[in-house]
Design a protein that fits this description.
The chain is mainly α. Helix content is 55%, strand content 1%. It has a domain of 156 residues. It has a two-stranded antiparallel ribbon with strand order 1-2. Helix 1 runs antiparallel to helix 2. The radius of gyration is 21 Å and the shape is globular. The C terminus is likely disordered. Bound molecules: zinc ion (ZN). The site of zinc ion has 8 residues, from loops.
């Protein structure tokens, strides 16, 4: 039986749904794939957008079917297309496994993302059943907790170690990098504060910036001369020493970049764009920045989208916080476009 885009079999199981979904996603991935050759082709941002379109297809109706993911065959049906898509995003070899491909592409496994959507959906439904109208901040907090649980589950999937907050920043490029801060409206230019290069990205920090030469020497000793992200991740997956060296590099470098960023935020002479925003000021800023051009404010925009993710407890919603590409607001029964 097919109802609102979900397929149920005679025993009210979703296996038929996952089979059909998996085939559809593989077909869609193949038809998009020729647009994204591994050599040349669009850059990572475009690749993530492409992955996001397919993720929104995959997670459609997730709160309804997420309980069915206790069956391994259903998880396998979801992972198959996700791996193909993650390899395309990360430009990795076909030999890279599912967990590694997801880490490379900076996307948690879909079955885990489905659990976040489900947790938020069921919490909201429960509140509505009690005739309560929770504030957007409360919903954001529920989503944050669910997301923290998800990251912990994701870590268990990975060999050798765990994804630290700062390791994720470098893997995803969403962190304290000039280019990212400029993109989210927190920096006037994407340049590097350490060396003055025109654009500061995760790759610049990792492989080029002269400000981190000493830390880079240690990293190269463990992972080799090739500091491209796919090569580093392959080294991390092969060798625990490489994993630890990369985690240590990210921890040292990113904590220093964040400290410098906080100093710039706290500078009283900094333009308003650069200053740290918290509490009521932060909410007022969000409301005003999301207000439509006519000046009328958008209702219920008190929580900025990046707060849907797990910032470290000590940093609140500072611009240095976002660790993982934001999970966008739910759409179509819980599905959402990717980061
Ligand atoms: Zn630099």
């Amino acid at each position: 039986m097919k109802y609102l885009g979900l397929t149920l079999d005679g025993r009210w199981h979703f296996t038929a749904h996952f089979k059909g979904l998996s085939e559809r996603l593989v077909r869609a991935a193949d038809s998009f794939g020729w647009l994204l050759p591994n050599l040349g082709g669009p850059r990572t941002r475009c690749r993530r957008l492409y992955a996001g379109v397919l993720k929104s297809m995959a997670l459609y109706g997730a709160p309804v079917w997420s309980d069915s993911l206790h069956r391994r065959e259903n998880v396998a049906l979801l992972r198959r297309p996700q791996r193909a898509i993650a390899l395309r995003v990360a430009r990795a070899y076909r030999t890279v496994g599912s967990a590694a491909a997801c880490a490379l592409a900076g996307t948690p496994p879909w079955e885990l993302e489905a659990s976040v959507l489900s947790a938020v959906y069921h919490w909201t439904a429960e509140q509505r059943a009690r005739d309560l109208r929770p504030a957007p901040e409360e919903r954001g907090a529920v989503r944050r907790h669910a997301h923290e649980d998800m990251v912990r589950d994701w870590e268990r999937d990975l060999p050798h170690g765990f994804l630290t907050y700062r390791l994720v920043q470098v893997l995803t490029g969403h962190g304290c990098f000039g280019n990212y801060l400029h993109k989210i409206g927190r920096e006037e230019s994407p340049s590097c504060h350490e060396c003055g290069a025109a654009v500061d990205t995760a790759q610049h920090t990792l492989a080029v910036c002269p400000g981190w030469e000493e830390q880079r020497r240690v990293l190269v000793g463990a992972v080799g001369q090739d500091l491209s992200l796919p090569s580093i991740v392959n080294a991390m997956l092969d060798d625990e020493r490489a994993w630890k060296a990369m985690a240590s590099f990210c921890e040292t470098v990113m904590s220093q970049k964040e400290a410098a960023e906080r100093e710039r935020e706290d500078d009283p002479s900094a333009p308003p764009l650069r200053r740290r925003r918290r509490g009521r000021r932060r909410r007022a800023y969000d409301r005003s920045s999301l207000a439509p051009p006519g000046g009328q404010q958008v209702v219920g925009t008190g929580v900025p989208p990046p707060a849907l993710h797990a910032p470290p407890p000590s940093r609140g919603n500072s611009a240095v916080s976002p660790a993982i590409p934001p999970i966008p607001p739910s759409q179509g029964g819980g599905a959402g476009p990717a980061s």
